[in-house]
Structure formats: structure tokens, C-alpha cells
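Tutorial handout. Part one gives the primary structure; part two gives the three-dimensional structure as C-alpha cells.
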Amino acid sequence: MLIKEGIIAAPGIAIARALIYEKADVKVSADHYEDSDAEIKKFKQALDKSQSQLEEIRLKTVSELGKEEAAIFEAHEMILQDPEFVESVRAEIADNKVGAAYAVQIVTDRLVILFEQMNDPYFSARAADVKDVGNRVRNNILGIVRADLSKLKEDVIIIADDLAPSDTALMDKRKVRGFATNIGSRTSHTAIMARSLEIPAVLGLSDIDQKVNTGEMIILDGLNGRVTVNPDRYQIKEAEEDQRKYQAHLKELERLKDLEAITLDGHQVELVGNIGEPADIQGVLKNGGTGIGLYRTEFLYMNSDTMPGEDKQMAAYRSVLEAFPDGPVIIRTMDIGGDKKLPYLPLDDELNPFLGLRAIRLCFKEIKLLKTQLRAILRASVYGNAYIMFPMISNVDEVRQAKKILAACMAELDALQIAYRKDVKVGVMIEIPSAAITADIIAKEVDFFSIGTNDLCQYTIAVDRMNQAVSYLYDPFNPAILRLVKQVIQASENQPGLFTGMCGEMAGDPLATLLLLGLGLHEFSMSALSIPQVKKIIRNVRYQDAKKIAAEALTLETGVAVMAHVLESMKKLKIEI
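Part two.
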């Protein structure tokens, strides 16, 4: 028997036999080819074949899962058509006289490294998409056929080094009970697809494909991030009981969808969703979110070959606003720069991009880009309840400068007699300690705060959350973080009409719900799947009890002590997650 611990990618428990999913480790050589035209022709044919394959996968995914999940393969098709990818391969063939397969491999590797170096977990996870598309084109050039996971004869748990989105899309969903991989993160498309398919998944298991043989019995525990190989009958019986409990838990959560997030003693908060693109709306609606607490607009820029114009942006914002006519829909201005670069917006390399030219700082340098986006948001505001949020704010002067630019955009629309909501609310991300500490000053200039705990933790504790060597220091339960959160909430409560939300990962963490509720957080914004669980906790506690729990937590000296206090409090209140 072997037990391996990994990252929870999708919840649930699966019991089945292992299937090792192997792909050939293709090696291509840098052989010399004089006939570059012939190699470019091979490349073009492979592109066309790859396009047809992806279109087939996309249509299959639409029919089985819906348009939201199929959007992944639209993104893959866009990579195939990306001039940076296509022209780079052609140039590699023509300039260096190499074969088409080698040129594709070189360009793919180059782009994968570029994405992997991005410190934002969402964008670094996109490296898997580029790699998947590049490998597909290369394999089509070489005539290599991938293993077929669509024709499985028995229930299995897929074991692999990694799974590309196209792998998960083509799986026989009736036979695949779960999957476990050596690598991956909660923000990778592997994890996203697993949650969409509601297939339990545990990632980041290091060498699971080397520790398991096809046919061996597996218990995959997606609730605790654990894989058990060759369990005994008692462990299997226990896992089966856990399965039954989890299914009952899901049925209970389904009943909460249309209920309010209100405590036993009548205190109500808002539960809203984080999205990256309009396709994410359905997940928020399905799970009972009442609006959008964070619309990451940078994906409009990252998924485009050219700077998206005002009309294109306006259409995207309108589609989200119309889905939530009563809102709120909080649209964050683009968080681009530093580690998130655009091919059509040249920026200098920086030694420390997290502290460099990014987000609002870049917008102040490229005011034309910011004004285009603000006009698009304003024009779309007539279709719903739009809120504008500026990221990476460090002081009140930046808030005033951003508002001055917004006022200029309003004047431009007035001059053109273009309608927009005059009362659109303006807020800021609180993700820099200086902004949190001076929240009382900034509160006089805005309508709301949204706390970005991911960066707030990183900046406050001085820890790179992507660096495994120091990641143990990254702790949202650290007393310093709790005190800053409380300070921001207090500043908003002292200013009439102001509210504080939170859009970092902490907002969707069930272990943090009682603390944040007790600290007085007004709005919780999170990934769609987290909404029902957080709502359940809120509906099963008295606000007065949550306030006492939070007050006690603020007196504790370490994050470990805070966590122990929360767990003990949940136990006393008989709140299970």
C-alpha cells in the first residue's frame, strides 16, 4: 500500500483501477533541410489538420458540457492562428533550414517558457495550452497518433504526468472516475476541466505515474488531496462511506442555490463570483452567485493578437452586465504589465515585476489605453449595474488621478451625446499594505473597497507565493493580514455608503468564512464552485457568534493559533465542511 499527498483540483472520492496514460516522448532533431518550402507546406497541412481536430473536440465538448467548457478549445484554435506562433515557425524553417517538426518544437518551447515565467498562477498555467497545441501540430507533422481515452472498457482512474485540456475533453466520462497527475495547479485547465466535469482530481503528486501500475486499485480522495494505491478492504469500505456522505452533502448544497446568504440572526452578506471572461458567467449563475465581484479584464487583452478596441470591450462588458442586471458587476481595469506582457505592447524587462510597472501604474503611463477601457465600461454601464475598480492602488493620489481620467472620459461621452450611467460606482483594490494602512484616507474618495488577499499576503509577509522554498510563509491567517483586513473594513464602516468586499482566494476558503463574516466583510467574491459551501456556513451561524470568533482571533499571536481557534469554533458550532 502507498499513500501520496497532492493538490486538490476537484472535490469528490473515486474508487477504481488505475490506467497509466502514456504519451510517447517525441524527440525531433535539428536536421538540415534545404527545401524550406516543402517543410513550410508540411507545417501548413499540420495546422489545417490540427484545426479540424480541435473543431471536432470543441463541438463534442459543446454537446456534452456546454459552451463555457468548450471555450478552452476556442482558445486553442486561436493559438493555431496566432501570428506570433505561425510566423515564428515559418521564420525558423526559412532562416535556419530546419524541419517543420523541429521548428514547431523550438517555437513551442520558447512560448511555454515565456508563460511559465509569469508569476500570476492563471497565466503561468496557460503554458499547458501552448504546449498542448504545439505538440498536436508537431505530432500531426510526424504522423503520431495520441492514445484514445474515448474508448475505455471499464471504470478507471487516469494516472499521468499531466493531462492537456484536449485529453480531458475526449475522455469517456462514463468510465473515468478520477485522475491524478504528477504536475498541475488549482488554476490549470486540467483542474478547471475536472471541476466542470465534476470528476475528482488530485494534482501535483510528483511521481505518481512511476509508483502505480495499470490495473492496481486506487482510492482518489479529492476532498483531502490524497491518493491511496492498493488499499485494503477496510480502507475501501471507509472510502465508500465517504462517497455516500459527500453525495448527500452535494444534494444539500443544491438546495441553497436560490436562498440568501443570511445568518441565523438576520445579518446578510453578498456572495458573488470571480470571472476572467464572459464564458464564466454560467458557473456563477449555476451556483447561486448574485453578481460579479471581480471581472479580470486583462484576459480580453491576453487573448487578442492586437489591442482590443472600445467596441469589442464594450460588447464583452455588456454581456456580463446583462447576465446580472441587478449586479453588482465589478469590472477591474486591466492588470497588465511587469510579469504579464502583451506582444503588441512593448515593455522593458524588470528585475522585480511584482513591484514594477503594472496595473494602474502602467495605465497612468499609457493613458490612452486606460481611457479606451473606461469609455467602453461607461458605455456598457447602461445595460446593468457596473462598478469600476482600479487595481494596485498604493496611495490616495493615485485614486484622485484615476478619477480625474474617468471624469475626462465622461466629458468626452457627454460631448458625443453617448449615454452612460452617471452614478457608476468607483472603487479600488486593497492589495498593497500602504493602501490598507491608509484606507481611512482613501475611503473619502471611493464607493467601495475590494481586498485582494493574494497580493496583500505576498506584500505584507514579503513572500513569493510561487516560490516553493518559502511558500510555507504564505499564510492568510497570519495576524498581520487579519489586522489589515479589519482595518480596511472599519475604514469603510466609518464612511457612510461605503462597503468592503474581498476577491482574493481567502474569500472562497470555508475555513476563513467565520473570520471574515465576524470581521464585518460585506461581500465575498470567489470562484463559482466555492459559493454554495460558503453560503452553507453563513446560513448556519449567528452573526454575533462569528463576531466573537473574529474578535478572539485578533488577539492571537500566530497563524497556526488562529487556524486552531477557527477549527475548534466550527466544531463547537457543529459546522462541517
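Part three, for discussion. Residues 457 and 476 are 6 Å apart (CA to CA). The two ends are 28 Å apart (CA to CA).
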